[in-house]
Amino acid sequence: MKVKPDLSSSQLWNISFGFFGVQIAYALQTANISRIFQTLGADPKSLSFFWILPPLMGLIIQPFVGKWSDNTWCRWGRRVPYLIGGAAVSVVVMCLLPNISALSSVFWVAMLLGTLILMLLDTSLNMAMQPFKMMVGDMVNEKQKTRAYSIQSFLVNAGQVVGSVLPFVLSYFFVNDNNEQGIPKNLTWAFYIGAAILIFCVVYTCLKVKEMPPEEFAQYQEKQPEEKKESMFKLLKKAPKAFWQVGWVQFCCWAAFLFMWNYTTGTIAETVWGTLDSSSPLFQLAGDWVGVIFGVESVAAVLWALVIPTFKQRKQAYVVSILLGAVGFFMIPFISNQYLLFLPLAMIGCTWSAMLALPFTIVTNALEGDSHMGTYLGLFNGTITIPQIVASIAGFGFMWMFEQAGIGGMKYMMFVSAALLVLGAICVNFIQDKKN
Fold first, then answer.
1. What is the pTM for the complete model shown?
2. Which helix (H) or strand (E) holds 3?
3. Shared domain check, 409 and 274
4. Shared-domain flag, residues 160 and 250
5. What's the gap between Cα 15 and its chain centre?
């Protein structure tokens, strides 16, 4: 089996550049979907039901995108057709989402349309995102994969920063329409601009990146593309040990971050602003500040993505990054100054950066030479989505236990996240990292 040639820095960036646009779309969805549904009249208590859709759609869609693209060889490439298709649908849906109220004035119809559009957005974004990870696995050799996935991590976090601040920046250029049935103009235009950036970045990647033809690709594979096709269940049974070993680390990390996304606002409302009343103006101030500190987290993740390749051992970088986040989570409940929160969130950003880069580096190296890599990466996405689904259900149980113990309050969920990350760091030591 031949060794894949080294790629230039520009080639590594071009492969992942479209990821920047995809993550702007994700950030706009994550930061504003609750706001949109509340504007439509949804009960805030029911918003959590909508948040199970993103990981659920990812769990369903990405394995099939991987499997189908493994067997796709056409004039446009192997992964690119799915990238273009997902991006095209995402652009249309992003333009529809902030205009739901204009599509129907009937509450239940608007809510149904909103739910369907959200499902379409999650599906299309998942379809657009997965090919970038697969192209790195297809085209980048083992020596450069840590760098390649670190570039993806950088672009992911840069996109999240832009998507998070875009509505805030646009608010200076528009007089927002506060009509109960309408979406503010700055938010609507943020989705339009995000859609334009998404399609530009994806088209740029498609024009700059040329995937290997099947004959050339076969030279770098131990198993030839024409081998007998196998079901996803059979492939799971044959998955390398690193696939499952990294999966345990992923479970701990993604569950910890799901708790952060769900409970940070309530935590700092209590610890910094001294309120547990979600109807209080102080609670809303806490919610505004969460956006700021999450931005700090993303900036720290961008910077840490540049540090990760300097570690001599990937597992060492993985452990250090995760433990930094564990300390950050543990610090949050003890901080009563809103500006001091920058420090723990920056530490958590280091963990986030590693979560986006190192797992895929280790797994794709373990799968090197396997023609089913796309299917495996789609299945590996289950280590991201399943923990979030489990954590969204388990969170209710933890909160009930804390309440029964007389220590009610969301801040204790930060300790749960810290404990999960410590467990994840321990699990890293059991990973059999190929050429670590």
1. 0.71
2. none
3. yes
4. no
5. 18
Cα separation of 378 and 382, whole Å? Answer: 8
Give the contacts of 111 (CB within 8 A, at least 6 positions apart). 37, 40, 41, 42
Q: Give the pLDDT confidence of 197-226 residue by residue, as tens digits.
A: 999 999 998 888 887 777 666 676 665 444
Q: What is the CATH number of the domain that holds 171?
A: 1.20.1250.20
Q: How far is CA 371 from CA 212, 239, 314, in A?
A: 13, 13, 25
In this structure, are residues 28 and 188 in contact, taking their beta carbons and an 8 Å threshold? Answer: no
Q: For residue 74, give the 3-state DSSP assignment.
A: strand
Structure tokens at 236: 């799971």
Say whether both 189 and 290 belong to one domain.
no
Same-domain check for residues 198 and 277: no
Number of domains in the chain: 2
| Residue 113 · residue 100 · CB < 8 Å | yes
Give tens-digit pLDDT for 260-316.
887 887 888 889 998 877 666 777 677 667 767 888 888 898 889 889 888 988 899
Rounded to whole angstroms, the Cα distance separating 294 from 304 reads 15
Length of the chain: 436
